[in-house]
Predict the structure of Protein argonaute.
Amino acid sequence: MQVNAKELYLEASRVNFEDYILHTHGNKKDVIVECIRQAISKFNSGKNKKARIDALKNYFQSRDISLIDGTPIKIMEPPDIESQCGQLQKPVFVFNDNGEASWAEKGLTQYGPYTKRTFDRNDPSICVICAQQDKGRVEQFVRKLLKGISRSKYFSNGLEGKFTLGTSHIDVFTTTNDSVDAYKNAIEAAIRQKADDGGRWDLALVQVRQSFKKLNVNENPYYWGKSLFFLHQIPVQDFTIELLEQSDYSLGYSLNNMALACYAKMGGIPWLLKSSPTLSHELVIGIGSANIGQKRGFENQRIMGITTVFSGDGSYIVSNTSKAVVPEAYCEALTSVLDETIGKIQKRMNWQKGDTIRLVFHAQVKKFSKDEIAAVQAVIEKYREYQVEYTFLKISENHSLHMFDSTSAGERKGRLAPQRGKTFKLSKHEILVYLIGQRELRNDTDGHPRGLILDVHKASTFTDIKYLSAQVHSFASHSWRSYFPNPLPVTISYSDLIARNLGWLNQIPGWSDSVMIGKIGHSQWFL
């Protein structure tokens, strides 16, 4: 195929941009890209963003502007809405022996994880898969993960000490190269060894490379490793060889988050949310999606995930019924998952005839379709012995509203940014809420945080927008991937992760989602 070069252009993507800078500036690429990132962040800072809005306002105020019929347009000064704003309380976390803390890090250190006394994988057996030429450095890395870094502020005790796991039993299996076959051989050797011993691996640590991200799924050891270990109900934590280049100071923060995810993947519960008891049995259901595509220029496949179910205290109730399907099969899958989930939970939680059941659906969608609502209503019809109420809550990041807080104008970072938990009610069914605030910004180049708009669908039978916004705010602090608050609640972020992972894994030959029916489906395997 021949094309006139004048008709070609470089697609505006981050990958292409960085490749172009590498081509034109060679080893100066990283410095230049970082300078550009900082310039963009500065452009998006609260101070500059407000200045541009004010400039546009002043421009229109200085001119007489009228509609076609002559009606004059007046742009007024923005009102002070401080008295109309709300401030959500910080969530409180529950740890071992019902210890409570508003800071997860402090609570873990002081009380230990929620499942400290009931965790069944103490003295865990862990296999490590790594490249033969990197074995020495990987062993040092794994020791730091398990035992800690002595001078680290938050990770001096490591995974074993922080989560009271006892002493891990480690075996290392090496790959001769970076091919899928080499990884398969090492993984199969690990699985065979443990099978011969009559035991099981509690966790697999798999070393990969950043360059694997550019590989197709069928050629990618990252996805093959996951599929093979998942097939044998073994949770996986991967890490890139490039991570080993970090200083101990930075590595301590990275390993702190990694250890948190490892504990959850092995079935542990680091903490739960303290919730005020209600008169209802409440289930919060997350609906996520991911775009799965092998090559640029080809249409990506959108995968819908009906994936996470939480109780009001943040307990992760059901995941092995999770599905990732194409949009055409979505409503049927939603009905199936919801029906199966309610059926399991009503028995587990001993629901009684006449009890009130509340279903809260979180989704990032343009709007809830009639088919989605009909699917939920069809399931509810099967449970007439209960008083069932439900909410369809649309969670939107894409909007044009910005809130500026003059009390933070003098701060070094996040100038004019509101505090986390700040809310502004837009209507009876809409509210603006900030899950990331001024204090959560790590650098002065992080820009201005964007709030979320929560919108209760008119078909909902439970419509308490303040209650629902407080719940979303708490769930944004409940991720076991990191100790930092998330810009989205875990109902959405977890659902997106599961949809993305299952979407890619379904492209591996021989993979079946039925693998998730086993024990691994009840863990946070996707973190």
